[in-house]
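Write out the 3D structure for:
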Amino acid sequence: MISDKPGDLVLDSFAGSGTTGAVAHKMGRRWIMVELGEHCHTHIIPRLKKVIDGEDPSGITKAVGWKGGGGFRYYRLAPSLLEQDKWGNWVINKDYNAAMLAEALCKLEGFRYAPSDAVYWQHGHSTERDFLYVTTAALNHEQLQQLSDEVGPERTLLVLCPAFRGCGEYPNLTVKKIPKQVLNRCEWGHDDYSLRVENLPKAPHSSPLPEGEGARKGCTSLAAKGESAGQRRLDFSGN
């Protein structure tokens, strides 16, 4: 905290017991912490609750006159969308069901996930006339032509599937293969990652973490929000 100033963003990729977040919070910094393991629930979250409630007298509390306030949002990292089969080919991770896959791909493509109850090919939309359809089936020409006819000339549809075979033009369809489409969005061999995080869910009005909830295998992220002394709400969001 020597070279930063109030309002700056502090990142701790190995949160441990949450000391970085606790100190940054008391000093008026925004923060992001990332951690693996159960101690996120047994140590970090209880500690941050005390910080926000003004019940943590340790560290720099007296030096900065900390009285409590602020809050944070809590996320669990989803499993990898793709995995390699025994032949080394990239395939959709078996941990993903149809709904999870559609939602993940909507997020990757910048679409809003909003599956229709009436139209099977409307899993998401970017505008009132631009839609996204995700399927794990390989599509042939007849199926693509049927989709094109149903979409009509006034709308457009992005189709994501593992494989397709077409023999004509579909002016209102854009068809992409899922593994290739996802892999093309990955950053390989970079040492200057942008850390761009898009389409984060909005914090719910009230969603307390159930007592005794265990962390799933994966990466856990906690991020600070609002530093006003009057706000003492914890907001948690998970996938």
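The first strand starts at residue 9 and ends at 12.
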